[in-house]
Amino acid sequence: MKFDDKLKNYYNQLNNNHDQLRDELLAKLPDDVYTGRLEFIRSPLRIAAKFISAAAAVLLVAAGLSMLSTDDFNLNNYSSTNEVATIQSAENLAWAEITELISRPESLHCKMTTFSGRNESSMLFWWQQPNDHRMEFTNGMINAASDGKYYTYNPETKKKDKYNVKNAGYDAVNPSQFILGLMGMPSMFPGWIESSAEKFIDQSQIVSSKEITFKERLCYEIVANRDSSKVEYIIDQFEPTIYKATQYETRNGKEIKVSEIEILELNKVYPETLFKLP
Amino acid sequence: MSISDADLVKKVLQGDQNAFGQLYDKYARLVRAICYDTTGDVTQAQDLGQEVFLRAYNKLEVLQDHDRFSPWLVSMARNVCREFRRSKFRDKHVLMGFDTPEETTEYETVSQHDISDEVHDAMMQLDEDERMALHVYYLQGNDPKKAQEILGISRSSFYRLLEKARENLHKLLTEE
């Protein structure tokens, strides 16, 4: 059979019983959902939320990075987030859209960098559902976790260790849990993601936005202020995907780049061996 | 003259369920294609597709830009598929892959089954972007504007991606 005929047959099967399926769906639709109301309340908050919602998770990552030492991404050198997850008010409809738009990827690969003067430290990070992750630091340190086991490699001692992870725990949030919690693991942080993202939305103010092309995708470049931070986001126009977020702070009247995260891959399938150290 | 998605969405929000039926007619096959990528089974893809549309209906009022219905629907389909995959992952009693139905139901045609398996297996070796380009091209017509709307890429990028997808798929289907 010719190539085009094979494809035609493949897609034709998606027509099977279309009319019946449509009629079944329409019969199931609840009658009382839409009663003729056309106009919603549109507020600046909702318009802002539309742009910021997809970036809320990345902003939290950038904020988390800025709390880490820039000299040494040491396993023991972490601090719990001091972000208090206070519930800010938001219109119900706006919040429903936010939670729908935040993408919960199957996997993620990104590069995170923090800057301090002329120094910069970076980490390559991989994460895959449900709980696998790997972190490679510029100093050669590697952390990885998979299937209830946690692995570390110290380049100075050339020593590898393996631990059993009994309980991730909610009390002491280390950077990897912080990041994993952001990437769609509500079982680890029930209610935390939504309330923290909501807080960022409430406290962020859009300064500018413009359409750009980034890696052949139509995107928005959004600049938002929050407290003394400015964050530049590059967000896909059509998918709830963030490609880059760069955080700046104003110190002594100067704007300084503090941290950056760049998403390198989304939803790739990584082998299990990536998340273990043999 | 066909009604735009934005106008159909407005009609739905005014209580016109038949308008939702028209949106279903436009995009159900594309949604089923995305679901079929996940399930590998046409019946399950149909069921999952129905779930996508039911959710879309219930959440339609939060869609601010009515012109963005199609990419919004595609995102929703992807999220539903992810949830489906996670539920399969968590269920330790489910075998890898999916059980094929014991009987041929009225929803499947036996004569197409082998061809579909071959093409599906080849499709799953493509990148997700390439698969989407094929789905959009074959199911939404050769409309670069529609592709741009759904995939969020420029016209030239769409054609490049489509060419690459067809080339790769052709290679996979002739490597026997």
The H-and-E topology of chain B, N to C, reads as HHHHHHHH
Radius of gyration of chain B using CA atoms only? 17 Å
Low-confidence stretches of chain B: 92-112
**CATH architecture designation of the largest domain in chain B:** Orthogonal Bundle
Count of the domains of chain A: 1
Main β-sheet, spatial strand arrangement of chain A: 6-5-4-3-2-1-11-10-9-8-7
What oligomeric state best describes the polypeptide chains here? heterodimer
- The CATH topology of chain A turns out to be outer membrane lipoprotein receptor (LolB), chain A
Structural class per helix/strand content of chain A? Answer: alpha+beta
The CATH homologous superfamily of the largest domain in chain B corresponds to RNA polymerase sigma factor, region 2, helix turn helix motif
Q: Beta-strand percentage of chain B?
A: under 5%
The biggest sheet of chain A, with number of strands, parallel, antiparallel or mixed sense and barrel status, is:
11 strands, antiparallel
> Would you tell me the structural class of the helices and strands of chain B?
mainly alpha
Number of helices of chain A: 6
Q: What's the total count of β strands of chain A? A: 11
Mean of all residue-level pLDDT scores of chain A: 65
Helix content of chain B: over 70%
How many domains would you count in the coordinates of chain B?
Answer: 2
Annotation, overall tally of beta strands of chain B: 0
Short description:
The complex is a heterodimer of chains A (278) and B (176). With 278 residues, chain A is an alpha+beta fold. Chain A is 27% helix and 34% strand.
